[in-house]
Amino acid sequence: MENLILDCDPGHDDAVAILLAAGNPQLNLLGITTVAGNQTLEKVTRNALAVCAKAGIRVPVAAGAERPLVREQLIAGEIHGASGLDGPVLPEPAFDLDPRPAAQFIVDTVMTQPAGTVHLVPIGPLTNIALAMRLEPRLVSRVKSVVLMGGAVGVYGRTPVTEFNIQADPEAAAAVFEAGWPITMVPLDLTYQALATDEVLARIGAEGGELGTFVVEMLTFFGNQYRKERGLPAAPVHDPCAVAKLIDPAVFTSRPAFVAVELTGTWTWGQTVTDYRGQLGRPHNAEVADRLDTVRFWDLVTDAIVHLHNS
Amino acid sequence: MEKIILDCDPGHDDAIAILLAAGNPNIELLGITTVAGNQTLPKVTRNALAICAAAGIEVPVAAGASVPLVTPQVVAEDIHGDTGLDGPVLPEPTFELDPRHAVDFIIETVMSHEPKTVHLVPVGPLTNIALAMRKEPAIIDRVKSVILMGGSYTRGNSTVCAEFNIYVDPEAAEAVFRGAWDVTMVGLDLTHQALATAELQDRVRAIGGDLAQFVLDIWGFVGSAYKKVYEFDYPPVHDAVCVAALADPQLLTCAKAFVTVELHGQWTKGMTVANFADVPGMHHGSSEGLPMGAATTDVAMKLDWDRFADLVVDSISALAASKGQ
Prior knowledge:
heterodimer, A: alpha/beta, Inosine-uridine Nucleoside N-ribohydrolase, Chain A, 13 helices, B: 325 residues
């Protein structure tokens, strides 16, 4: 059993990550924290509560940073729509937010659990994580690992060289990569292998009952946006890839690298510069995911949805 | 018949580019200009003359810029050795340099030929080309095209993100990409497909004679360097691809992109950033602070290796035959 805090900005793929984290019996979801990213903080927080209501998930949800550390706010409305979770009808929240700011919730949770037992899984901009590690520096040595969705090595998203989560708060990301804790980076190169094909959606729809239908509606909207905006054949379902790693370490392979976040480039700010070969002479600071076992991945996602539907 | 000026910094793969330009019947090599790059200007200029001597080539050779426009000089000794062309025995030059600076040679040659008849083929840092287009802006309209070896859209070699020719003089490269002429970028994504494999080396060996041995000695040295530095099984023949593409219009598959050079990044300076017009997953809209320009550069994406290998072998055969070997 692995304990995790899921730090997210739902977001269609974030919603699937929540379902996987709550619906897999090998994971203990200690809480969900939200951060401005795919949409504004208010919207993504409401979406997190709506996903919990829809799936019958009862865990603390704490709202976090409403803007990046330094830069102007970016949102990904072109991909996630005006609500941040366009597509399905969203239910009303079934419970109230945790009163604490997300960074405080992260600090309190990690410091009250035994050392080395809590994973942080940030799948949005890294603002909350950077704030938490500055609020409580002991966090860095106390968490078991950080498995983050973000960055890009040779497959790019928002710009020709960047991925949204890192670009949305590059200073926070730089701090997280420089902290010295065990990091697994799940970049676009990996998540572009997690395509919600018609076959995948048909299976989730057939096996997942009403919740399955909700997921299919979400990912159908998401797929249409990716086809329209990026010319992709189906939606890459980024965020649950990071969660899946905690369930089954073999769900993807990874290679050690030194990852630097570019902060000063005119065209490249927010790029994750990934040095596998030691060209920069820096010690490795991350494992970078590179190949996904897509069969295993979609089995995990589908099983979690079925599990939540049945319970 | 395509007329070209080859602007180079020999350099092992530059040497093959020179042989291809001089030995291919579809190419008329108007002259060779040199620029500091793989090694210092005196070394690469001497190497250009030595290659001409080894292959019996008689064309004007003019020396150009000895340092980049702005960025401090870097050379690629790890790949090309102390001379810039370590490996083969280099013969003494058989003729004198053209007295003109490369920039003046380029301008005078382009302006004295009919409009849209001369291609510029820069396969080193773009210092000479940038200087020429600023000294005589009329060349921008007048050249037929610029087909350059440099940059990449997926990788670097000098740094994690930047390719050597662009990294060495990024300001010059940005000037060239912004010029209102037809530019084709042959980057590492393409040239890493242009490997001097065992098959290609065997075919050159079969030609026999001094020139074939000269080429094999070039690939012997640079192959070991690429093995050691980049863990490649065979060395890429980067620069020759640009010349080959003019000799055979079907050699490359290209896609249109907006290409710009990062000039300020701490980790990414000298990187070429490419926004493709219609490659799925590789097109990006303008966004805050990143006004994407028009997709005017042809970016080379796929090489027909068999045709490339034929062009290399045939040009070496032709030069060897005309030397009477």
